[in-house]
Amino acid sequence: xxxxxxxxxxxxxxxxxxxxxxxxxxxxxxxxxxDLADTGEMLNGAGLVxxxxxxxxxxxxxxxxxxxxxxxxxxxxxxxxxxxxxxxSPERARAIAERxxxxxxxxxEVRPVHDWFxxxxxxxxxxxxxxxxxxxx
Length: 137
Prior knowledge:
- By secondary structure, this protein is of the alpha+beta class.
- 26% of the residues lie in helices and 28% in strands.
- It has helices at 11-16, 19-39, 90-98; strands spanning 2-9, 42-47, 55-58, 66-69, 78-86, 107-113.
- The strands form 2 sheets. A 4-stranded antiparallel β-sheet has the order 2-5-1-6. Strands 3-4 form a two-stranded antiparallel ribbon.
- Strand 3 (55-58) and strand 4 (66-69) form a beta hairpin.
- The chain is flat and about 50 Å long.
- Residues 131-137 have low confidence and may be disordered.
């Protein structure tokens, strides 16, 4: 199963980190990257720029879409980085996520990822699709 590990931090605290604190965070993530590369569980991941450099687009039922500088919501903790991992169980995904919690990343979400957009039938389950009902008929 694939999971997104979504990491949240306080942008002000991130900007205020000392060089030593940044080095420690970097060291811990590099160790995790090596471990996940060795097990084949790491699929993707990246850090995100600070929320002040974000643009949020909003759909409007009547009228043009809007765009605003800043994150979707005003909150103390903002999405700061993510990993996409593939592992055997929710428990393993949680164990991986626990490794990124620290003085900097103060909250982590672990979400299963669909291999499709999660609407309708998954690929291979729709009639006529390879592996789906009626396939090869």
